[in-house]
Write a structure and sequence with these properties.
This is RpiR family transcriptional regulator. The chain is α/β, with parallel strands linked by helices. The protein has 13 helices and five strands. The chain is globular and about 60 Å long.
Length: about 280
Amino acid sequence: MTIIDELSRLTHVTPNEKALVSYILTNTQDVLNYSPKELADEAFVSIATVYRLLKKIDQPGFNEFKVALAQSLSTERVELTDVNIDYPIKELETTDSMINAMEKLYQKTLLETKKVSNASSLKEAVDLLLQAKQVDVYTAAGNLYFAQNFQFQLQEIGYVIQVPQEDYLQRLYAANSTSDHVALVISYGGRGQTTRAVVDLLVKNQTPIILITSTQSNPLTTFSDIKLYLSSVENHYNKLSSFSTRFSLLMVLDLLYAELFSREYDKNLEYKVANYQKMNDELK
C-alpha cells in the first residue's frame, strides 16, 4: 500500500488533520517541495498537526514522508504516462489500439479518483443521506444520466430521491427544499448559472449540501457542507469527450451507494430482493 493509499483510507482524524489530508491529496506534487511550516501554512493548520498526522501514518520524519509521497506518485505513473486523457485515440487507429488506450484512460482515472477520495468525507456524506427525509440531486447535461442511475440504485432500496432536469424544476425543487432534505450537487467547476441559483436557494432553506466537484477552484465549495472530489486531469473543453470525468463521477456515486448499502446491509438486501419477487412471480 502506498502512502497515498494510507492517507486516502485514514480514519479517526481530527478536523484539522482531515483538512491537512485533503490538502495533501489534492496538491501532492506541490507538497514535495514544501517544508513542514510551508505545508502547515498552505493547509491552514499548525505544524503540530503536520507531525501528528505523520505519526498516525508511521512516518519517522517529514523528509521520509516526502520520499514516500514521491515514490507513491511514481508508482501510479509507471504504466499510465503514455495515455492522453483528452485525446486517447488517434485518427484511423486500430480497434485493438483503441481498446488498450481506453483501458489505460480508465485505469488512470480510477487511480486519480482514488487519490483525491477521502474516507471520512464519504462517511459523513452517507451519514447525511441516512438522516434525510428526501434526497435531491442537482446537475446538468451528460451528468444527468449518472444521477438518474444513482436515483435508480437508491429507489431499489426504498429511498425517496428526485433528479429534476429542467432549469425551472431544479429551482422549484430547491425552493421547496427543507433542512430535512439533503442536496447532492454535481458541478465540476461551478460555472452554470442554474446551479449557482439552486445553491443559493438551498442555503436559504438550510438544506445540507454534498458537493461533487473537481479539485480546481469552484465558488460553490464555500456553501457546501461536504465535498467529494472527481479526477480533475481532463481539459474542460479541449477534448474528444468527458471520458475521464464521467467515469470518475460514476465511481464516486457508486462509492456513495456502496457505503450506504453497507451500513444496513441485511435490511437493504432483504428489501431489494423482496421487491423483485413482488414484481416477478417466477423469482419466488
